[in-house]
Amino acid sequence: MSLKTDVYLNLLAASLRGWRGAMALAPARRQPAQLLKLYDIEASPYCRLVREVLTELDLDVLILPCPVGGTRFRPEAEQLGGKQQFPLLVDDNTGTRLYESADIIDYLGKTYGRRLRGHGPLRPLAVASSFLASATQWRPQGGIAGLRATASKAPAQPLELYSFEASPFSKPVRARLCELELPYLLRNTGKAAWKDIGPPSFRDRLFKGEKGTSRNRRWLAEHTGQVQVPYLIDPNTGTAMYESRQILRYLNQNYAA
């Protein structure tokens, strides 16, 4: 399947979720002193719900991919929590380890941001629409993107990815990182103003507004001169790049076994 088709399907998935995980309109009161850790499966509808909230709270997190058949982080997750169930959030700032997406959402809201209703009356609708969004990730060859592990070489240091959950261009990169079991620091880059809505070419031509409307978007503007996602940094090779197609090619060339 072509990347272009993939992007259109990811647009559909984001629409099914009402574009949750696109905006960072309620940033956390504070950033945790130690990075949050999320044992995650990119294709999981329950993990998606947690990643959406992390974008909306503008919280960075270390993603430890646990695809089906993976051996790099799944045993570690089981050792920490007692079972291989995902998502699993580990917060070393408070000594918290949590399964269940609703419990994690409640915890993140209570600890770092505004009041969130992981267990609210809209929970069944959120779960159902997240399942539908995950179903769009099925591919004729290879099944659901971001679900199953493929052989890879482990990096010495985690990679770094600027992304937001609803981004249709970032989704293929996150799916591949999960399949390859490559740990990465997720720099959530949600939009914090309505003038940010739309792809960069549309946004910059129509609004000509401030690009750095949230914390990590400001970093991109200051350090790269532009704001778009995904943006990958690999400290293992000193590589940094935009564009999904180039990033996917780089990951396959450098880490796929």
From TrEMBL:
InterPro entries: Glutathione_S-Trfase (IPR040079), Glutathione_S-Trfase_N (IPR004045), Thioredoxin-like_sf (IPR036249)
Stored SUPFAM superfamilies: Thioredoxin-like (SSF52833)
Ranges for domain GST N-terminal: 34-116, 157-257
Pfam family, one: GST_N_3
PANTHER family: THIOREDOXIN FAMILY PROTEIN (PTHR45288:SF2)
Protein name: GST N-terminal domain-containing protein
Species in which this protein is naturally found: Stagnimonas aquatica
